[in-house]
Write a structure and sequence with these properties.
13% strand; globular; 4-stranded mixed beta sheet
Length: 372
């Protein structure tokens, strides 16, 4: 057993549990299912007031930002706890894109311009979002960069950019490096996503000026590292989603009666829920392993992240499907929040790499040959 595996810590610290309590209380007050559904139907799912409190009030935006730049100097473990709670509430906030992916990219740039953005991000003053397709996976070739037509004037199009409509600044990968582009200077064309709580947009730049943050080689390395962290912490969002589905489904079958007995007492349903409980418990171990590996910069982090994504993605979808089915007729209605969780689970199963992609990475890391 390697030293990194021997020191793996899957438990939650007291600090992490206190952070969980604060985030859960905030979401209970401001992110009830009916509120989320109403905002999603309005076409403006992001809640600026909730974001300000989460980002600057609790300080969640700066968890991964070093203290010298105004952040909390915490680790991926704390960020994973926040994402668990956001997944549990299908909260429509740009945390994964803005406080994980964008933060990791800016940290990888290590320039004064990037440091200034990190300070604003940690203070909750600006939302930075990478102009990358939501489906962009770690270990996969990066998309064709946009063209710098001279002096940082950028031209090109990026599709399926998550949370672009909530961004103040877009982080754009161009052929000459990474650039910070004011979102107001880009043309955003909204798409109709499966998950209405995480809107997608096509970003088009036509000679739009940007501030250079890093050269091309540094930028590509920073983006690759950010995608790895994002995929690893996405597993925690999927875990929180699955836990909510399991908890709500158990509560429903306990209270719902047929033939003068709770439907949860039927053996077939007991078996399904017991299997789901085991799946969620295993997903918790996988997600925590990924967060801990990222926090400790373990050499096994790429493998651990690939395992977590390959497993947690499927568990979240199964949990949401069971939630819809075992709620019966009410689970099929638009008014019940179960469909929000199913759509987020399905969307997450494509975000930052599909299950098949991550299984392929696991096979590569384990040096398992593909079947003929």
């Amino acid at each position: 057993m390697t030293a990194s595996r021997a020191s793996l810590d899957l438990l939650y610290s007291d600090t992490e549990e206190e952070l969980r309590s604060a985030v859960r209380a905030l979401l209970a007050d401001h992110c009830a299912p009916a509120t989320v559904l109403a905002r999603a139907e309005s076409g403006r799912p992001h809640d600026p007031a909730l974001w300000r409190t989460l980002a600057s009030g609790i300080g969640a935006a700066g968890l991964l930002v070093p203290e010298k730049l105004g952040g909390a100097g915490a680790s991926h473990r704390e960020a994973a706890v926040v994402l668990e709670e956001l997944g549990r509430a299908v909260a429509p906030v740009p945390y994964l894109t803005g406080c994980v992916l964008a933060t990791e990219i800016l940290l990888g740039c290590d320039t004064p311009e990037a440091a200034d953005l990190l300070r604003a991000l940690a203070a909750g003053q600006q939302v930075c979002v990478p102009a990358l397709p939501l489906t962009q996976a770690p270990g996969a070739p990066l998309p064709q960069p946009l063209r710098d037509t001279g002096g940082g004037a950028l031209t090109g199009t990026v599709t399926s950019v998550a949370d672009a409509t909530a961004a103040d600044v877009l982080l754009v990968l161009a052929d000459t490096g990474l650039y910070a582009v004011p979102a107001a200077g880009a043309r955003l064309t909204g798409a109709v996503p499966l998950d209405l709580t995480r809107p997608l947009a096509t970003v088009t730049l036509d000679g739009t000026p940007g501030t250079r943050l890093a050269d091309a080689a540094t930028a590509r390395a920073a983006v690759a590292g950010a995608l790895l962290s994002g995929a690893g912490l996405l597993a925690s969002e999927q875990l929180g989603l699955a836990e909510w589905c399991l908890t709500e489904t158990v509560a429903h079958v306990r209270g719902r009666h047929q033939f003068n007995r709770p439907v949860g007492s039927f053996q077939a349903l007991k078996h399904r829920l017991a299997r789901l409980w085991l799946d969620v418990a295993s997903a918790r171990a996988a997600a925590r392993a990924a967060a801990d590996a990222l926090a400790t910069a373990s050499p096994d982090a790429p493998l651990t992240v690939a395992v977590a994504q390959a497993y947690c993605s499927g568990v979240a979808v199964r949990a949401a499907e069971e939630c819809v089915q075992l709620h019966g007729g009410i689970g099929m209605t638009w008014e019940h929040p179960a469909h929000l969780y199913l759509k987020r689970a399905k969307s997450d199963s494509l975000a930052l790499g599909t299950t098949g992609h991550h299984l392929g990475l696991v096979a590569d890391f384990a040096e398992l040959p593909a079947p003929d």
